[in-house]
Amino acid sequence: MATREEIREALEDYRERCNGNARLRKMLRSWTRTCDFRVLDADAGDPVAFTVTITNGEITDVSDGPHADPDLVISATSEDMCDMFWGDLNPAAKYLSGEIKVVGSQQDVLRVDAMAAVIWAD
Amino acid sequence: MSDEVLRRGLGLRSVVSTSTGLAFAAIEYLAAASLLAYVSGSLAWVSILVAGGMALLAWGFFSELNGLFPTAAAIRLYMQRSFDDRVALTVTFSYLTTVVLVLAADAYIVGAAFTHVTGLPGWVTGLVIAVLLGVAMAANLRGVQLAARVQDIATLTVVVATIVVAGVALSKHRTPAAIAADAHRHHGAAAFVQAVALGVLLYSAFEWVTTSSEEVRRLRDVPRGMVIALGVLALTCAAVAAAMGRLLSQTELDSAYPQLFLGRHAMGQAGYVLMCGITLVTAINTFNSGFITASRFVYATAREGSLPRGFARLNDNAVPWLPVVVIGGVALAASLLVAVTDGWKVLVATGAALEAGIYAVAAFCVLRLRRRQPDEERPFRVPAARVLGWVGVVVFGLLAAAASVSVDDKTNAVPLLIIVLVAGAAAAYVLVGLPRVRAAEAARRAAQGPRRRRPAPPTVASQEAAPTASKETA
Question: Does B82 touch chain A (CB under 8 A)?
Fold first, then answer.
């Protein structure tokens, strides 16, 4: 089980890669959303969640805790969450097998997946 | 989904209009007219309501499967867990064909209607089809799509206008041409079964709204919305079929645009123009949702590693461009083929057979998953599933078989041949191409190696220091 710090480190690295990718920024230029990343296997008394704010394609904020009114909620185990941010797993395969759960519009789901697809492209 | 509060969640009204809009393509008018080849005009509505009853059975299956897998990936998930993965993929790819067929049919109908209205030569139909699909593809590639509210309005406009025109038509006396056409129809049990099989096509795609499960405010709105949509479709299509049987001649029913004649008979030139506009709105709605649904499904399958990686490439508008181009290309080829051969009735029969076949598969998935995942939570359960499930498998299987060997009241195996070719191509890919695609993907991932930075394992010294540190902190 990955710790909160490990997920946070992975998320910060992910943020850096996304914001540094010119093609991705262009692709998501008019996309502004609030995404919640929720860890499914966190201890019951210590729920782990992060709110990621994306403004015109740029990740402008990563904060601890869930958002009250998000556009998109992504839930996964801590290990999958970490591996996803590091690009070590295929998020689409995990989503299609039901291991990663996403709640939100299909267009937003595609864009979130696009972030991983573009920054980890060959 | 039910327990999440989303800023942009969809309500019941959007579920109803999406489900109705996905089902109500321009091909509905042709399917309603085709149905009149099998049953008397005054009884057409009965076959549509019986087909509606069948669709209600399918609704039960899809509602249970949707509750089990409330995700856009549901189709992939319940097929995968009910069958071997290769069979699941073959069925899923065949399922996708219905979307492409509907796109092709709508493009053809609008093209043919345009040529008819303007009085231009027949070859212009092909040109109009190419322009229509080209514009739809270009709009999709640029990331243009109708907002949910616009789609709601478009669907409402189409349904209300169609019901009004059909209602006015039903208030008119039967025309001599319609009486003459009725006299030549068969009235046997076999003909009625064929009519019900075609009737199933009128409801087809209502279930695609289940892919929006992740964006609805309350999950229970999906089955509720679908059943309301089935009611709206039953009412609209029954009215259209009854009205066509009352006023249209056989030549008008055999045309690719019977709805235009219905408009003219009911409301004169104004009705004719109104139905021209409604046909165009219906097609725009179909192009919008059809391209998005099909291309995003192909994209997700490619991202999963079950299709070549090229299908997962995105353009600068975050649109998977290759799936859009391929789906548009296939729809264009099918549409032009129909325009050249005038074989739109083959398209209608193929669509009906595929859809009935998919409903039989859904029934089987419900049965299989009840056995394989008996304890899984099911917000919706089909009552007497063991009986109704097998009823669904047998009845929809028979309807699929009936629709696949009959075109326009004559035995014709072309729809069956098309389905065998499509399923054969999908199976060939799954058996030969897929292992290579998956091997290449696995090799690519293996070559990359892990990127994740893992924390250094605790050293002996740090382990010894840890209790001291916590004491100091305390």
Answer: no
User: B147 touching A, CB under 8 A?
Assistant: no
Q: What CA–CA distance (Å, rounded) separates B115 from B442?
A: 52
Compare all CA atoms of chain A with the CA of B305 and give the residue at the minimum distance: A93
pLDDT at B224: 94
Bridge pairing between strands A33-39 and A72-76: parallel
Asked if the Cβ–Cβ distance from A97 to B77 is below 8 Å, we say yes
Would the CB atoms of A27 and B316 count as touching at under 8 Å? yes
10 Å Cβ neighbour count for B331?
Answer: 29
For CA atoms B300, B137, B325, A23, give the dihedral sign.
Answer: negative
Mean pLDDT of B58-65: 96
Distance from CA of A114 to the nearest CA of B (A): 7
Count the residues in chain A. Answer: 122
Going from the C-alpha of A95 to that of each of A31, A111, B390, the distances in angstroms are: 22, 14, 31
Report the C-alpha gap between B317 and B98 in whole angstroms.
Answer: 27
Chain A contact for B303 (CB, 8 A cutoff): yes
Q: Do B304 and A96 touch (CB under 8 A)?
A: yes
* pLDDT at residue B261, as a whole number: 96
Q: Distance between CA B266 and CA B276 in Å, rounded?
A: 14
Tokens found for residue B197: 């099989």
Interior CA angle at A103 toward A100 and A106, to 5°?
Answer: 100
pLDDT at B33: 92
